[in-house]
UniProtKB/TrEMBL annotation:
Residues 8-127 form the Gfo/Idh/MocA-like oxidoreductase N-terminal domain. GO terms for molecular function: nucleotide binding. It comes from the Bacteria. Pfam families: GFO_IDH_MocA, GFO_IDH_MocA_C. This is Gfo/Idh/MocA family oxidoreductase. InterPro entries: Gfo/Idh/MocA-like_OxRdtase_C, Gfo/Idh/MocA-like_OxRdtase_N, Gfo/Idh/MocA_Oxidoreductase, NAD(P)-bd_dom_sf. Residues 139-354 form the Gfo/Idh/MocA-like oxidoreductase C-terminal domain. Belongs to the Gfo/Idh/MocA family.
Length: 357
């Protein structure tokens, strides 16, 4: 069947902070039309629907899924609802773009994977950093062998003050703190660029020493749509070493609060032929004619640009739904990243290294 000229009718579930980037990207995408918006908060859903021209507004996602004219959904809700809504959407015959993290636990991730296999529908995990233009460029360099064998990567995403409060700091809805919220991105990106090696063992630490530091004044930070600092039972910071079966290793650290001089984001990869930094800006290191060369690709965005990356992620999702391309972030990768995150929490709780089979 030809999909030429067909526009996918999209439902966006969850109309809080991140949904704006999804809605904007669907609006720009020539393959999609925004048909419906759903949020528990009706005013929020109505405002988004009015802004983006969606005909239907729902407060119950099951009603949105019952609409046979909807082809695909974006899930932009709290983490504890991702698995349930993904499975319901797949069973209703919809393609799914699910925000990161794919879900809270390995058990949930396995159920989502089964639902994808049963339904035959696409589920793209919202690992948006994979879709950034700079990462696309670097992936081509890596695939062409410019870095050789990548044996070490390190990534750091430190906020000195940045616990978003609300559901993010309520572990029953988030599944954890900066590790599951920020660590998921940098662990996934390094693992993807390293060629998705098989995990051998993981050692992690989590810390709850500072709290959310809601007392700090005169310094603004990212907050959930329903900001509330009164509840906080997630870690302030975490670190981990992930060892892979091919001998490579990944070192990460993340924080919502830390006595750091400033916020910091870096993602670095080291191979036996060359190296690369994805953040703070793309640079590729090599050795030529007995000389160390740092090359700077000349591209629109050398560091992460949210509207570019979400635009590319959603265009790719639409292309996958229409059978033109394969998703770059399938459910299998969502499951493997969930395994890594869970093992870091488990290692921290037990104080021992976790071995994978
Ligand atoms: N890719 C990224 O870089 C990125 C950035 C921020 C957030 N996120 C992810 O996006 C998701 C949402 O984060 P946010 O910052 O927009 O949070 P938010 O609190 O601003 O918005 C979440 C919205 O979901 C709604 N909601 C919750 N459960 C619902 C349900 N069952 N049905 C309908 N609506 C429901 C809430 O009412 C709220 O409006 C999270 O999973 C988060 O991890 C991803």
């Amino acid at each position: 069947m030809s999909t030429e000229g067909k526009k996918l009718r999209i439902g966006v579930i969850g109309a809080g902070s991140i949904s704006g980037l999804h809605l904007e990207a669907y609006k720009q995408c020539s393959d999609t039309v925004i048909a419906a918006v759903c949020d528990l908060n009706e005013e929020r859903a109505k405002a988004a629907a009015a802004k983006y021209g969606a005909e239907q507004v729902y407060t119950n996602y099951r009603e949105l899924l019952a609409d046979p004219s909807i082809d695909a959904v974006s899930i932009c809700t709290w983490n504890n609802t991702h698995a349930e809504i993904s499975i319901a959407a797949l069973e209703a015959g919809k393609h799914v773009l699910c925000e990161k993290p794919m879900c809270k636990t390995v058990e949930e991730a396995e159920k989502v994977q089964e639902a994808v296999r049963r339904s035959g529908k696409i589920l793209q995990v919202g690992f948006v950093r994979r879709y950034a233009g700079s990462v696309d460029v670097l992936k081509r360099f890596i695939d062409a062998g410019e870095l050789g064998e990548i044996y070490y990567a390190k990534a750091s995403c430190l906020r000195r003050l940045g616990n978003p409060g609300g559901w993010f700091s309520d572990s029953s809805r988030s599944g954890g703190g900066p590790l599951i919220d920020l660590g998921v991105h940098i662990i996934d990106l390094c693992w993807y660029l390293m060629g998705r090696p098989k995990v051998k063992s993981i050692s992690g630490n989590t810390y709850r020493n500072l709290g959310n530091r809601a007392n700090v004044q005169n310094l603004s930070f990212y907050k959930a749509a329903d900001y509330d600092a009164s509840r906080n039972d997630v870690e302030d910071a975490a670190n981990a070493v992930i060892r892979f079966e091919n001998g490579a290793s990944l070192l990460v650290d993340v924080s919502f609060t830390l006595h750091a001089a400033k916020d910091e984001l870096y993602i670095k990869l080291y191979g036996d032929k060359g190296g690369a930094e994805v953040e703070p800006a793309l640079v590729v290191m090599s050795e030529k004619y007995d000389t160390i060369v740092n090359s700077t690709p000349q591209i629109d965005h050398t560091s992460f640009d949210a509207s570019e990356a979400f635009g590319r992620e959603i265009a790719h999702f639409a292309g996958s739904c229409l059978g033109r391309v394969e998703t770059l972030s399938p459910v299998e990768d969502g499951l493997e990243v969930t395994r890594m995150l869970s093992a870091i929490y488990e290692s921290a709780a037990k104080g021992t290294e976790i071995h994978f089979d």
